[in-house]
């Protein structure tokens, strides 16, 4: 089978994992190729509107398990393939160097047994770091049931690790994934979260020395005395291996761990899904919980007969997830036993605000930041802008509008210097109409459900380099002249005058 | 009086210097590259002066803030019509208020600079992901772009750090501007690259692999071209390998 075909099969097999983020990494380029960008970078968007940041592939889709919801289940009749380590390394490096991707997201079906699979995956990430001096982002799936030592060692090389819970309740797992007891899923998550916590506290790790780590977890090549490391060695390959190895001692899953929950394959309510997420953020300090609308890829009497994936429900859960992580909400405030599911018409914040009209209106010039965050129409950025701007001047509605606050929504919940907005009302029905999703946007510009993105603007402006020094104002005449720039002797002190322009 | 400058950042800062020292009534500042003279207005060409430009840059840093300098710079490189006077008015206000100006997020004078700066910031961030390099036969990675704003100075340092061991060229074909990096030093230069060398023999193979991956990674039952275009405006598709 050729590589093109294999890549197709193993991308198809990996695409139902929705995690795409490349954020939270802290790795810098140390004489190799690649680095992390704290906010993450999306490199393209596929035809389904989902961002592509990492090369997301399975090592293999030849699975011994038979989980009912999964495309790769043993009894499913689909083409099977496995990559070799060399193939994955070649693809990752060549895609990365062309700026197609931020790094690699490697997952796998269970080949033979969990430890064997984990070992194969570990070899790939180890070789990427040590042989290729690759400092780009790596997200690795931990295979539940694999030897703890393998998971721990992998954590030294990767930026993010994840274990997918998939089904948000014990009951669901029992019926649909009988070979994956919930305990086996939570064990590696607990191990990773402990590893991250210990690593942060342990002073030896902070300095980046590998000598203090417990023996047996490292390959011999890494146990070198880092202090006697010479700056440049004639054998480039050797020096690279040393560098990346030393580097890997500094980190343990620096970008944290994440998981994924499938929405709509089991009868679980939004409340129990959100409570589970809240517990995962609290207990295992997860960075992200992803929600994946169940896409019917197979028919089985144990699965619900749905035709379309519940995308709007997934969207509402993402919105609620954002409220948990960035807006200081708790799951119990958003939903309750009597209200266990979100209203498809209203976003979760509007849903909450409507039930708590008695807390409003707030005076924008005085209200606490935490309360501003709770106003529909004010997001994190707007709230921060309000807090900054009101230090200088008292704000009016015109200021707010210019700062990007959606007054059509927020107008029902705030006052400016004691005044209310023109359309202000505390009548529940009027407010509800203003907050209803579809009506809010002008025709033809309706909200498109999908995973949200936090756009952060670029902080690196290159001010460190003096701009005028970089610019050349006379241009080279022809291709040969500018190519000569690349054929200069590489002695590290190329000057403008060397280029003969 | 209308000041004419050479279109560069240093040239523009020199006009700001003149504005404060000539004490003339300045009604507009225009780039020599784009101005349309008429018979009524009085014009004066200001030659770029690096020392004067640096004085102004230092004054912005000391009397206003680093954040303001960043925003002014981004606004300038947005190349939007009218940016010179927006920036001049911002600087005038900034010299009066100091660093407080960075908090005045609802003020029109401030927003005139802040909004173009945000646009530039957004395009920079997008381009960090959307830039596509092709390997040429002489082992240089070559990327072409036609951004709305003149962002090459802002994005190049990112690639210098990331692809430190590669030779590369980032070429803004709209402005005939390119940054060159040879694994040691980076330069930015005006240039007309007419003959790009042939592609490396492996290049097409990896482009095909990437296109194939891109095709397969989309989930058909979630097909959503509208969402895709929200994130990935069509004007950027031209240089995207996966969209060819």
**Helical content band of chain B:** 40-55%
Let me know the largest β-sheet of chain A. Answer: 6 strands, parallel
Query: Average pLDDT value of chain A?
Result: 78
Principal-axes shape call of chain B: globular
Biggest contact: A-B, 95 and 96 residues
Strand order of the largest sheet of chain B: 4-5-6-7-8
What is the string of SSEs of chain B from the N terminus onward?
EHEEHHHHEEHEEEHH
C-alpha-based Rg of chain A, rounded:
26 Å
CATH topology of the largest domain in chain A: TIM Barrel
The CATH class of the largest domain in chain A, by name, is: Alpha Beta
Number of structurally distinct domains of chain A:
3
Number of strand segments of chain A? 12
Distance between the termini of chain B: 50 Å
Which structural class do you get from the secondary structure elements of chain A?
alpha/beta
- Mean pLDDT score of chain B: 93
InterPro entries (chain B): DNA_repair_put, DUF4130
Protein name (chain B): DUF4130 domain-containing protein
Protein name (chain A): Radical SAM superfamily protein
GO molecular function (chain A): catalytic activity; iron-sulfur cluster binding; metal ion binding
């Amino acid at each position: 089978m050729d590589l093109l075909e294999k890549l197709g099969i193993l991308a198809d097999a990996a695409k139902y994992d929705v995690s795409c983020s490349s954020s939270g990494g802290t790795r810098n380029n140390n004489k190799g190729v690649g680095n992390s960008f704290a906010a993450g970078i999306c490199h393209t968007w596929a035809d389904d509107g989902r961002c592509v940041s990492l090369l997301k592939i399975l090592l293999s889709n030849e699975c011994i398990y038979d989980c009912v919801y999964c495309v790769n289940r043993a009894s499913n009749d689909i083409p099977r393939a496995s990559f070799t380590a060399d193939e994955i390394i070649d693809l990752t490096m060549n895609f990365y160097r062309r700026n197609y991707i931020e790094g690699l997201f490697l997952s796998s079906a269970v080949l033979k047994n969990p430890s064997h699979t984990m070992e194969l995956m570990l070899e790939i990430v180890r070789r990427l770091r040590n042989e290729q001096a690759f400092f780009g982002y790596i997200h690795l799936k931990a295979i539940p049931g694999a030897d703890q030592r393998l998971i721990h060692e992998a954590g030294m090389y990767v930026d993010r690790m994840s274990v997918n819970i998939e089904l948000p309740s014990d009951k669901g797992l029992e019926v649909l994934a009988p070979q994956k007891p919930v305990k086996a899923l939570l064990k590696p998550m607990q191990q990773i979260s402990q590893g991250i916590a210990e690593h942060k506290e342990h002073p030896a790790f902070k300095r980046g020395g590998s000598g203090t780590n417990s023996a047996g977890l490292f390959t011999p090549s890494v146990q070198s005395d880092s202090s006697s490391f010479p700056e440049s060695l004639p054998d480039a390959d050797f020096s690279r291996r040393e560098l990346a190895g030393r580097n890997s001692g500094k980190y343990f899953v620096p970008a944290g761990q994440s998981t994924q929950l499938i929405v709509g394959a089991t009868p679980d309510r939004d409340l129990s899904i959100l409570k589970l997420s809240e517990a995962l953020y609290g207990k295992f300090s997860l960075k992200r919980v992803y929600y994946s609308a169940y896409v019917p890829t197979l028919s089985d009497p144990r699965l619900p007969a749905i035709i379309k994936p519940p995308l709007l429900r997934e969207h509402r859960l993402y919105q609620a997830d954002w409220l948990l992580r960035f807006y200081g909400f708790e799951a119990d405030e958003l939903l309750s036993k009597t209200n266990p599911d979100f209203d498809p018409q209203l976003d979760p914040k509007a849903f909450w605000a409507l039930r708590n009209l008695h807390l409003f209106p707030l005076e924008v010039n005085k209200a606490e930041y935490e309360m501003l965050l709770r106003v529909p129409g004010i997001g994190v950025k707007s709230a921060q802008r309000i807090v900054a701007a009101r230090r200088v001047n008292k704000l009016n509605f015109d200021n707010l509008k210019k700062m990007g606050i959606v007054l059509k929504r927020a107008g029902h919940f705030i006052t400016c210097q004691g005044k209310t907005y023109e359309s202000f009302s505390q009548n529940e029905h009027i407010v509800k109409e203003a907050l209803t999703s579809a009506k809010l946007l002008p025709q033809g510009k309706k909200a498109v459900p999908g995973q949200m993105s936090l756009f952060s603007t670029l902080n690196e402006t290159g001010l460190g380099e003096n701009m005028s020094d970089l610019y050349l104002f006379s241009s080279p005449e022809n291709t040969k002249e500018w190519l000569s720039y690349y054929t200069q002797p590489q002695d590290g002190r190329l000057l403008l005058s060397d280029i003969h322009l | 009086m209308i000041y004419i400058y050479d279109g560069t950042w240093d040239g523009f800062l020199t006009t700001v210097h003149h504005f404060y020292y000539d004490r003339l009534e300045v009604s507009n500042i225009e780039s020599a590259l784009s101005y349309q003279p008429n018979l009524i207005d009085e014009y004066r060409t200001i030659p770029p002066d690096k020392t004067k430009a640096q004085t102004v840059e230092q004054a912005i840093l000391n009397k206003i803030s680093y954040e303001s300098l960043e925003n002014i710079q981004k606004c300038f490189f947005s190349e939007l019509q009218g940016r010179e006077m927006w920036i001049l008015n911002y600087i005038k206000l900034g010299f009066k208020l100091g660093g407080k100006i960075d908090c005045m997020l609802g003020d029109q004078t401030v927003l005139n600079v802040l909004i173009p700066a945000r646009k530039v910031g957004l395009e920079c961030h997008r381009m960090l992901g959307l830039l596509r390099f092709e390997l040429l036969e002489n082992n240089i990675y070559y990327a072409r772009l036609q951004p709305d704003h003149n962002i090459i100075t802002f994005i190049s340092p990112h690639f210098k750090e990331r692809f430190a061991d590669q030779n590369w060229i980032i070429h803004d074909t709209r402005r005939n501007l390119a940054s060159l990096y040879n694994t040691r030093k980076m330069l930015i230069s005006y240039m007309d690259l007419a003959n790009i060398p042939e592609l490396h023999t492996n290049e097409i193979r990896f482009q095909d692999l990437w296109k194939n991956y891109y095709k397969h990674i989309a989930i058909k039952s979630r097909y959503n071209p509208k969402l895709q275009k929200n994130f990935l405006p069509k004007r950027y598709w031209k240089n995207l390998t996966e969209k060819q």
